[in-house]
User: Which sequence fits this backbone?
C-alpha cells in the first residue's frame, strides 16, 4: 500500500494505516530531527510526536496529488526552521550561555555509541563539521534517500543550488575521509 | 526515487560517462581523480550500517491515545472495510453495491411468491384434468352405454328364449317330482305364491327338458335347476347350481 493511500485511510480513522505510516517514517524522521536539532534526542522525540500528531489531527493538510515523503519532510523541515527561530530569540534573551555547547556534549555521547565504527565516527564528525545547509542536503540525499528534485522541494531551493551544496559537501567529506579511502583500499 | 547525478557517479565509471553526463559533471568534478574520490565517498556512505534510531515506546503510546481521542467513533477495521466496499463514498448512491444488492433481494422477494402460488398451480392442473376427464368420461360413457345396450338386448333375448322353453316344456309335462319326502307340492305352492308377494323359494324341477334344448348354447340351466312358476316368468327364480355349493351337494345326492 502506498503512503498516499495510507494517508487517505488515516483520514477515515483507520488505525492500522496510521501504525503503518508510523513504522515506515518514525525512525528516519527521528534521525532527521536528531541531526537537525543539534543531536538533541529528547527534542527530536518531541518533534516526532508533534509531526505525527499533526497527521492525526489534520490529515486533510496532506495534498494527495503530492508525494507523501516529500510533503512529510517539508513539514519536518519547517518545524526545524521554526525551532531555529525560537532558539535565535532565546539566544538573544539568554544570559550569555550558549545552549548549543551543552547540546554538543550530547552529540559527543551519541558519537561514543558508534565508536566501534571508526570510519563512521570520522564520517559523522566530518559531516557535523559542515554547515547546516550542506549537512541537511547531504543527509536528505544519502540517509533519507530523497532525490535532488525532492530535496529541492523540501528545502524550497532550486535543483542547481541543491546540486551545488551536495557536491560541496561530498568534496569536503572526501577530503576529510581521504585517509580511510575505504573503497579504493579494498 | 528519480535517478540523478549522484546515481550516475555511483553506478558508472568515468570512462563510461556520455558526453552530456561529462558536461554536467564538469561543474563538480573536472578530473577522473575527483570523480573517483566522490565515488569512493558515496560507496563508503552506502556501506555504513544503518543508524537504527527508534522513537520511545511512550511516544507511540501517546500518539495511539491521541488517535483514539480524535476518532472516538471509529468502527473496528473489519467493519470499516466492509462499509467501504458496500458503501463507497466516491460512487453515486444508485451505483453503490449495498443498494444494488438490496434491489436484487427485493426483486427476488417479490418474484418468488409468483412462482410458488399454490392457487395458480391448482387452477392450471384442474383445467388440464377436466379436459382429460371429460374426454375419458365421454369415451367411457359411450362404451358403457354400448355395452349395456348389448347386455340388455342379450339378457332380454335369453329371458325370452328361456320363457319359451320353460312354458313349452311345462305344457308338455305337467308332473312335478320331488326328490325329498318332505318336499312341498311346488305347483300348488307357486300357484298360491303367484298371487302374493314373490318369495325366493328354491325348488327342484324334474322336468323332461328337451335334450336338444339342453345342448343348445343359449340354455342356461344345464344341471336342470329351476325355481318359480313356469307360467309366470316374472316370478320365476332360476340360477345355476354350480353357483351354490349346497345346491350342488343336494343335486349330487339326488342324482
Assistant:
Amino acid at each position: 500500500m502506498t503512503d498516499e493511500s495510507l494517508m487517505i485511510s488515516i483520514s477515515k480513522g483507520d488505525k492500522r494505516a496510521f501504525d503503518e505510516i508510523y513504522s515506515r517514517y518514525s525512525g528516519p524522521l527521528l534521525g532527521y530531527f536528531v541531526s537537525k536539532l543539534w543531536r538533541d534526542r529528547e527534542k527530536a522525540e518531541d518533534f516526532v510526536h508533534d509531526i505525527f500528531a499533526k497527521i492525526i489531527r489534520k490529515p486533510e493538510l496532506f495534498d494527495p496529488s503530492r508525494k507523501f515523503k516529500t510533503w512529510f519532510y517539508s513539514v519536518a523541515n519547517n518545524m526545524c526552521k521554526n525551532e531555529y527561530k525560537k532558539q535565535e530569540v532565546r539566544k538573544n534573551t539568554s544570559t550569555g550561555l550558549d545552549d548549543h555547547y551543552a547540546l554538543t556534549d550530547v552529540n559527543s555521547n551519541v558519537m561514543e555509541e558508534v565508536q566501534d565504527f571508526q570510519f563512521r565516527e570520522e564520517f559523522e564528525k566530518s559531516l557535523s563539521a559542515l554547515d547546516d545547509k550542506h549537512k541537511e542536503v547531504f543527509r536528505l540525499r544519502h540517509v533519507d534517500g530523497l532525490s535532488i528534485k525532492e530535496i529541492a522541494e523540501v528545502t524550497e531551493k532550486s535543483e542547481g543550488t541543491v546540486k551545488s551544496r551536495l557536491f560541496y559537501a561530498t568534496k569536503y567529506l572526501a577530503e576529510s575521509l581521504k585517509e580511510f579511502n575505504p573503497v579504493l583500499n579494498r | 526515487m528519480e535517478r540523478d547525478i549522484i546515481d550516475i557517479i555511483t553506478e558508472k565509471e568515468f570512462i563510461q560517462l556520455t558526453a552530456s553526463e561529462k558536461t554536467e559533471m564538469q561543474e563538480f568534478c573536472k578530473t577522473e581523480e575527483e570523480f573517483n574520490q566522490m565515488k569512493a565517498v558515496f560507496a563508503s556512505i552506502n556501506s555504513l550500517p544503518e543508524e537504527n534510531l527508534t522513537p520511545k515506546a511512550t511516544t507511540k503510546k501517546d500518539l495511539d491515545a491521541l488517535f483514539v481521542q480524535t476518532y472516538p467513533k471509529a468502527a473496528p477495521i473489519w467493519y470499516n472495510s466492509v462499509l467501504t466496499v458496500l458503501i463507497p463514498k466516491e460512487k453515486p448512491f444508485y451505483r453503490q453495491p449495498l443498494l444494488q444488492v438490496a434491489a436484487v433481494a427485493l426483486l427476488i422477494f417479490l418474484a418468488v411468491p409468483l412462482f410458488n402460488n399454490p392457487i395458480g398451480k391448482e387452477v392450471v392442473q384442474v383445467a388440464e384434468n377436466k379436459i382429460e376427464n371429460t374426454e375419458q368420461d365421454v369415451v367411457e360413457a359411450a362404451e358403457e352405454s354400448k355395452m349395456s345396450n348389448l347386455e340388455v338386448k342379450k339378457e332380454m333375448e335369453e329371458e325370452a328364449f328361456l320363457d319359451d322353453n320353460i312354458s313349452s316344456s311345462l305344457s308338455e309335462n305337467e308332473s312335478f317330482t320331488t326328490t325329498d319326502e318332505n318336499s312341498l307340492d311346488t305347483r300348488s305352492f307357486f300357484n298360491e305364491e303367484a298371487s302374493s308377494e314373490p318369495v325366493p323359494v328354491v325348488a327342484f324341477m324334474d322336468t323332461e327338458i328337451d335334450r336338444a334344448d339342453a345342448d343348445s348354447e343359449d340354455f342356461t340351466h344345464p344341471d336342470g335347476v329351476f325355481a318359480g312358476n313356469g307360467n309366470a316368468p316374472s316370478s320365476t327364480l332360476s340360477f345355476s347350481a354350480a353357483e351354490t355349493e349346497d345346491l350342488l351337494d343336494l343335486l349330487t345326492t339326488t342324482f
